[in-house]
Amino acid sequence: MNELSDLTLAEASDVLEMPPLEVLAWCTLEGLDCSAGLIDRGYIEVLRITGHGALDADAEEAGRSALEEVPSNIPSDPSERRLWLLRHVAGKLQRSGKWWPASTDLNAATRGVPDVGLARNAIEALERAGLVHENVKAGVHRVGLVGERRVEIARLIESGEVTDARLTDWIK
Prior knowledge:
172 residues, mainly alpha, Arc Repressor Mutant, subunit A, three-stranded antiparallel sheet, two-stranded antiparallel ribbon
């Protein structure tokens, strides 16, 4: 099989070790296009990095509570704190399915972080790097993740890998 080719749902099911219907459900939840029955190999990496598992009735409630909880593991070192904020904000948008054109209020994206000003600066840095799209609707600033950069966003969230010089500069 060519490494650059798309995978069928059955092949993706084997790679991810889950039933094809569950692969389809996760693709839909993550906003990945698999309507033709084929999944881009890059999407497989996104599904693997962002995690997968059985969908249960408590998933929606767990997602809501994750958005509301105040983190207790915020680093004190300024550079580590900025990287943590980038990962936290991007992860929060990803977990709530805010892939552009889906978006959320800027206030909701920064809620629960003790330093809201720095969290907003993190969103601005993500926007300058092209990972977040910001729009104003009816006077409300709304933000959503850029779908074309899913793999890069997933790596940032999972491992803290930063590939954009603008983000690296902001972290320092």
